[in-house]
């Protein structure tokens, strides 16, 4: 057992659980009036910062996550939203425009940024990267055929003066066929694909594209011959832009950066369905000269042997609305052990990295902490991630959307936002009814339950996402394009929807504005 001293001077025990993690400081119960009847109080979190290299891992506990359901209106009827309006994205219309002009399906999207997450236009062109797939495929087939594509548009044009679909031009795929498959030792893969990441630009127009490089090994019937192989990877190129458009050169080599180690981050030997993806890199003003990466992972336990602990549950001493460890372990919640990983670059070229312990665990809360990112405001560090309703553990429920946490540093005893729940921005959802699936929504669900996913929080609290499904079971349409931008007012431990932004809270479709400009002499294709 290791020990770390808290701000109060008390010693907090740090217990090993796959990755080393930390217990949470127990405290007095909240007043009865502060807690929804029948629900536990959230776990106490200090927001205290630790060194990025410490073995402290914050926990998003079951006590925290139960606050999501505690906020839900139990009287909300069929097809109504049961969640608080201030934490809910306004309902999106089915009559949405397609940003690619029917060329490709579009989902996870990220901008061209610097080390501080500022978003750049280059020589008058705004640029974004997206996961894309041929529209000849069914929308739900896209994941194993995903490629990284890019779009561009003229910078500085107000959203209300652009074409309705955002005014983007599809530039094509970033990589030539076969480039990203070369890093895999086993070349017998049936499908080789590219998943989400982030893109860093320098003053001379160099672009470091961090992404998830994936190989699938399946037979003709679609059955796994062996577990899929996801790796965090880097490719370097250059952006060329002028008034005529944008092109990229380079991106002809891929460097394998990180593979799940089975010690801090679950690997295929422990669980063939493990999650390891979505690198987001940044620099920390508190640690000049250091570059860090957050990514989605799972706690390094064997799938059939994983166990929840009292610390994962997070109930306060004397809590009467909690659960026992035995009850939770018996429920099957042990299959959901998502975390947010941390790595540090060990050279200036950012081609070599070392794992650090996770900064957040969600053991027995959710299995997916997708596309994590660090967002800084007013001296605070916000950790945002996204999760599906379907990936929450037994006994936990919440909408599709953004979940957020606040602390005093990269590695903090993160406090979940909004009443201690973690919910920052959900799609309109009725937790009184089942969800169904995007291709078969439950009859009673709100038409917006699957309207948005894969959110990315931009400067000034703007948030973009893609459309999955909009509508009810008897009248729904699939998406495959970016939805309208919304804005969060982020302050302290709260994040609320700005309903004064755009049209009652909904901004322009596929609107991802730059807040910085880069001029290069590289030119562009004509």
Automatic annotation (TrEMBL):
The keyword Calcium applies. The keyword Metal-binding applies. Ca(2+) binds at residue 367. Keywords: Calcium, Metal-binding, Signal. Residues 1-31 form the signal peptide. Coiled coil: none annotated. Substrate binds at residues 196, 277-278, 368-370. One of its GO terms (molecular function) is metal ion binding. SUPFAM superfamilies: Arabinanase/levansucrase/invertase (SSF75005). GO terms for biological process: carbohydrate utilization. It holds the Pfam family Glyco_hydro_68. It comes from the Bacteria. The record marks 278 as: Transition state stabilizer. Its cofactor is Ca(2+). Belongs to the glycosyl hydrolase 68 family. This is Levansucrase. It comes from Arthrobacter alpinus.
């Amino acid at each position: 057992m290791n020990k770390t001293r808290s701000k109060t001077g008390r010693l907090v025990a740090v217990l090993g659980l796959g990755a080393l993690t930390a217990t949470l400081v127990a405290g007095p119960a909240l007043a009865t009036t502060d807690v929804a009847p029948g629900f536990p109080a959230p776990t106490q979190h200090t927001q205290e910062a630790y060194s990025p290299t410490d073995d402290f891992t914050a926990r998003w506990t079951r006590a925290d996550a139960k606050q999501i359901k505690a906020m839900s209106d139990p009287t909300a009827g069929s097809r109504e939203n049961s969640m608080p309006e201030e934490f809910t994205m306004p309902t999106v219309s089915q009559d949405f425009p397609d940003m690619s002009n029917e060329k490709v399906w579009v989902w996870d999207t990220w901008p061209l940024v610097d080390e501080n997450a500022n978003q750049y236009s280059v020589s008058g062109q705004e640029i974004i990267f997206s996961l894309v797939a041929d529209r000849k495929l069914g929308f739900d087939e896209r994941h194993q055929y995903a490629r990284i594509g890019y779009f561009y548009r003229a910078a500085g044009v107000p959203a209300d003066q652009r074409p309705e679909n955002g005014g983007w031009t599809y530039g094509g795929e970033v990589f030539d066929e076969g480039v990203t498959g070369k890093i895999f030792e086993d070349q017998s893969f049936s499908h080789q694909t590219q998943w989400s990441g982030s893109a860093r630009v320098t003053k001379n127009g160099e672009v470091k594209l961090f992404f998830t490089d994936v190989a699938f090994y399946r037979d003709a019937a679609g059955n796994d011959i062996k577990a899929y192989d996801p790796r965090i990877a880097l490719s370097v190129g250059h952006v060329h832009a002028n008034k005529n458009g944008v092109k990229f050169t380079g991106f002809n080599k891929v460097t394998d950066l990180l593979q799940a180690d089975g010690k801090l981050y679950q690997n295929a030997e422990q669980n063939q369905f493990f999650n390891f993806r979505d690198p987001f890199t940044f620099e920390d003003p508190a640690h000049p000269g250091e570059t860090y990466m957050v990514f989605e992972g799972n706690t390094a336990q064997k799938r059939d042997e994983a166990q929840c602990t009292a610390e994962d549950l997070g109930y306060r001493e004397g809590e009467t609305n909690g659960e026992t460890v035995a009850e939770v372990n018996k429920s099957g919640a042990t299959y959901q052990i998502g975390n947010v990983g941390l790595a540090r670059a060990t050279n200036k070229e950012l081609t070599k990295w070392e794992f650090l312990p996770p900064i957040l665990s969600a053991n027995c809360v959710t299995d997916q902490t997708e596309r994590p990112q660090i967002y800084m405001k007013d001296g605070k560090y916000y950790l945002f991630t996204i999760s599906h309703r379907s990936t929450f553990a037994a006994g936990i429920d919440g909408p599709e959307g953004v979940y957020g946490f606040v602390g005093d540093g990269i590695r903090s005893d993160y406090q979940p936002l909004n009443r201690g729940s973690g919910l920052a921005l959900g799609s309109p959802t009725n937790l009184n009814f089942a969800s169904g699936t995007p291709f078969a929504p439950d009859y009673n669900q709100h038409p917006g339950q699957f309207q948005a996913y894969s959110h990315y929080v931009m400067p000034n609290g703007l948030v973009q996402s893609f459309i999955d499904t909009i509508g009810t079971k008897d009248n729904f349409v699939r998406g495959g394009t970016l939805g309208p931008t919304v804005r969060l007012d982020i302050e302290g431990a709260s994040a609320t929807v700005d309903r004064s932004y755009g049209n009652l809270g909904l901004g322009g479709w596929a609107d991802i504005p730059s807040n910085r400009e880069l001029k290069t002499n590289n030119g562009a294709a004509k």
